[in-house]
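Record 1 of the preview.
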Amino acid sequence: DRQPAPLRILAQSHIAHGLLGVALCGFCKKHPGFRFSIEIRQREYISQWVANRQFDIGFAPQPIDHPQIETELLVKAPVFVVLPRVHPLARKRRLGISDIVDEPLVAVRFGIPMRTRMDAVFATHGAKPVIQGETASVVSACQLVAGGLGMTLADPFSAAMFINDPAVAIRLFRPQLRVDY
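->
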């Protein structure tokens, strides 16, 4: 509306670091007077804060089930496996359940959508993941993998933060899992 107030944006850390930086840089170059304010929060709080009008827009994985929020699908993103570059499986272009079933994983904690997807795909194949450790974010899991601990499943925005890290390899996961944003 060309108002002097900044657009108040709320997003999870991996979206803020992976997607918003790219999107806002391009947009601000085309619209030099545009102002924004980004707040980074966990997924659980995004819908409530947007519904209470503390922010103008929020970015989070779907589903968002809140009666006061209108959602719009922006992208269906594939899931990747992040693993140490020196791991023998790093030679493969794609990795599936049969490849990683016996490998130690750094998983995100229960309740996080990526964990729900991971547990469901393992269960569908009659397998149980070997969890070496748990953490609260996919970015943290990727950092632990870069440090040499196991492997992890990651959304593309988190994985992209490690694309130039010589310690990791990023491979497409099969069967194809998607994260809707």
